[in-house]
Amino acid sequence: MLVFDFLQLECLRSILFLIVFTLLLMKEEKNKRIVEASLYAVAKGNLRHRSLENLSKKYDSIMLLQLGSAPMVIVSSAKIAQQVLKIHDLYCCTRPASPRPNSDHWKEMHKVFISELLSMKRVQSFAYARETEVDKLITSLSQALSKLVNLNEKIFALVDGIIGTVAFGKIYGTDQFKDQVFPNVLGEAMNMLFDGYLQMVLDQHLDHARPKPEQEDFVDFLIRLMKDESNSFKVSENCVKVMLFDAFIGGIVTTSTTILWAMSELIKNPRVMNKVQAEIRNCIGKKAKVEGKDVSKLKYLKMVVKETFRLHPPVPILPPREAMWEFKVGEFDILPKTRILVNVWAIGRDPNGWENPNEFYPERFDGSRIDFRGPDFNLLSFGAGRQICPGLDMGATNVEFTLANMLYLFHWELPNDMKREDISMEEEGGLACQRRTPLWLVPISNRSQLE
Ligand code: HEM
């Protein structure tokens, strides 16, 4: 669902160029006052979160955009986001038409998907995937000591490995998969390739000659559902593919993007880098690596991660919700079929919610109850309400655990002659709001301090 909604936004871009725009600004006179504004800015480029933020500064933190027959409400403040995502969540907890089957049957299956795959129990039981992939990352960085490393490549490989193993089992990344064309998640032909790829995975799992795995992966679980006739719903092969696709795209791009933004901010802010490394090293002492159970003790690291989510939410605008019934937000009427977009990026930088909003300052979370798990609506990196990201625990755990190890075992330096202020923080839209250019850094071993 996540994927389609973003593609839908892509399509809007071209439509936007062709139609005449009108911005209906929702003010006291209940949807009546019309302010004409060229929405060329919204259509331009792929950084709509920035264009929409500019519009909201000029007009209001709730705006109605009339695009042809589809009214669209843009929300840019925590207070209004809370009304939409909490108080009226039930009235708009559906998505606009999507290629996913839109039926009770699909919703029922989706619930199972969420509770089974992404429960805390599963997140923990898949710790082995995370640890194996972080071990591989450490080995690969140790082989590149004092050399320039393209961190984008390393981090995408790591997250792809973790989520691939969770979804497809230990077979993923092994020799059996080596000769298969694995579709690069960022590639253009992704959709088509992915279908063939998923079919191959399903066939392998359905093969009677396959030995019983010691740990059931997600495909095993879905196949069990497919075969279980006592279910009130039927799970088809196609449904299994759609759910795997969601898990892959939803999981890989967002998680890796966050790790890269965190490293970018840390290298730009040596004070924070030193402080977080000191915390990890004091807390862990002398060990071969940080273990999963250690992470809960790393309070400052968790603040660094929150601060990264605030400034760089990988999903800067939540996928659209659609109003099912009429409801009121403040004094404004939201009519059925209105699409609602929440600009998470703008809320994270709203000066009414944050002091010095553009500064990377993790201490702002010290003693604060603000968390991406809720109940606060200033930090919405995983969304909120009934549509909140089902991968929240897995995503946050993967980000924290990976960063903890990268910062414990290595010092990080800039390429020769590069100054901190030269590090580009330019964004690029797409499936997630990523760095525009790869992050190149030099890992230096910290082992001598640990022995
Ligand atoms: C840093 C990590 C992640 C971030 C920031 C993130 C963020 C989000 C956001 C903002 C949404 C939309 C929520 C809403 O509309 O309120 C979403 C949906 C979703 N995410 Fe994540 N996500 C992350 C990791 C993951 C992981 C690891 C998985 C799965 C393995 C995952 C699977 C999904 C799925 C399937 C949906 C669609 C849910 C639906 O439509 O009901 N995400 N995610």
From TrEMBL:
Sequence positions that bind heme: C389
Assigned keywords, A-Z: Heme, Iron, Membrane, Metal-binding, Monooxygenase, Oxidoreductase, Transmembrane, Transmembrane helix
Subcellular location: Membrane
InterPro entries, alphabetized: Cyt_P450 (IPR001128), Cyt_P450_E_grp-I (IPR002401), Cyt_P450_sf (IPR036396), Cytochrome_P450_71 (IPR050193)
Molecular function via GO: heme binding; iron ion binding; monooxygenase activity; oxidoreductase activity, acting on paired donors, with incorporation or reduction of molecular oxygen
GO cellular component: membrane
Entries under PANTHER family matching the protein: CYTOCHROME P450 71B11-RELATED (PTHR47956), EUPATOLIDE SYNTHASE (PTHR47956:SF28)
Name of the molecule in the record: Cytochrome P450
Native source organism of the sequence: Gossypium tomentosum
Phylogenetic lineage: Eukaryota, Viridiplantae, Streptophyta, Embryophyta, Tracheophyta
